[in-house]
């Protein structure tokens, strides 16, 4: 995904969040850890595959880099054991 496209998506998310609380202006809220990240810190916000990409997962969500790393490793392990 191009950085400009990513910025546009994150800006839409921020605008929606801002409707609930002005403190979320130009911010992303990780749905897992609830960490608030400025969208200008774009490298800390990542796309996460709900099912591992290696298993054909195409549905995605947005998470902070830390949560994506933690959940990705544990879901890959769980999914591998399941198979």
How would you describe this structure to a colleague?
The chain starts with a helix and ends with a helix. Strand 1 (27-29) and strand 2 (36-38) form a beta hairpin. The mean pLDDT is 84. It is of the alpha+beta class and 83 residues long. It has helices at 3-18, 65-82; strands spanning 27-29, 36-38, 45-49, 60-64.
How are the secondary structure elements laid out?
Blueprint: H1 3-18, E1 27-29, E2 36-38, E3 45-49, E4 60-64, H2 65-82
Antiparallel strand pairs: 1-2, 3-4
What attributes characterize this protein structure?
two-stranded antiparallel sheet; globular; alpha+beta; 83 residues; 4 strands
TL;DR?
The protein has 83 residues and is an alpha+beta fold.
Number of helices: 2
Report low-confidence residues grouped into runs of 5 or more: none
- Quaternary arrangement of the chains shown? single chain
Most strands sheet = 2 strands, antiparallel
Nearest-integer average pLDDT: 84
- Helix- and strand-based class? alpha+beta
- Terminal CA distance: 30 Å
Q: Topology as H/E string?
A: HEEEEH
Percentage of residues in DSSP E strands: 15-25%
Tell me the radius of gyration: 14 Å
The general outline is globular
Percent helix: 40-55%
Number of strands: 4
